[in-house]
Amino acid sequence: MSTLALDNTKLGLQSFVSTDSWYEASARQRVEGLLDANSFVEFIGPEMRETSPHLALFNLPEQFDDGMIVGHGRIDGAPVFVAAQEGRFMGGAFGEVHGAKLTGLLRAARDIASVPVLMLLDTGGVRLQEANAGELAIAEIMRALMEARFAGVPVVGLVGGRAGCYGGGGLIAGCCSALAVSEQGRISVSGPEVIETNRGVEEFDSRDRALVWRTMGGKHRRLIGGADVFADDTIDSFRDAARYLIELVSAPTLATLEAEQARLAQRIGDFGACADALDIWRLLGASEPENIPAMSYEAFVALADRLQELRHDAR
Question: What is the reported pTM?
Answer without folding.
Answer: 0.89
